[in-house]
User: What shape does this take?
Amino acid sequence: MIRTLSPRLAAATCLLTTVCCLLPWSAKAADEKKAEFAKETIDVGLVVADVEKSVKFYTQALGFEEIAGFTVSADFAKNVGLTSAQLDVHVLVLGKGETATKLKLMQLKGVDAKHGDNEFIHSHLGFRYLTIYVSDTTAAVARLEKAGIKPVAKTPAEIPKEIAPGAWLTIVRDPDGNMIELAGPKK
Assistant: This one.
């Protein structure tokens, strides 16, 4: 005896069969996209006026950890188009492991680096700020205060609920005037 399915059950079965057939393709596409990148985080290089002062700011005021850095010879740096000076890179991390965010700080001695206008994010083109997601804004602000860093303008400020419910935004400037956003809940 052959049973016929109700129209609703037939449609649901058809939909389920379609989804099941597409899942392996979807997973394969996601794996191929993931395989395109060796890491899902990026490293950021930052040229600073005073590397010791900047390392202190990023470690003590923001909570980065310094790990082993590296040196790039002037010849190699010039051949690849970075600079004509040797690079002594200080590497700072947020988190552990290969996917941890890395901030690479460099001070180029003997090079006339210029400060840009950092008053607002629209003051000039280029990367304009870093966003660091914190688990507790209150603790982050306490660490800033302990390091003698004052938030910019009227921050911390609650982020509008339609953007990030329950989150607060604190903006500070590093020793070179670059904006750093700290975003997260208050506990």
About this structure: The CA atoms of residues 101 and 112 lie 29 Å apart. The first helix runs from residue 7 to 35. Confidence is low (pLDDT under 50) at residues 1-22.
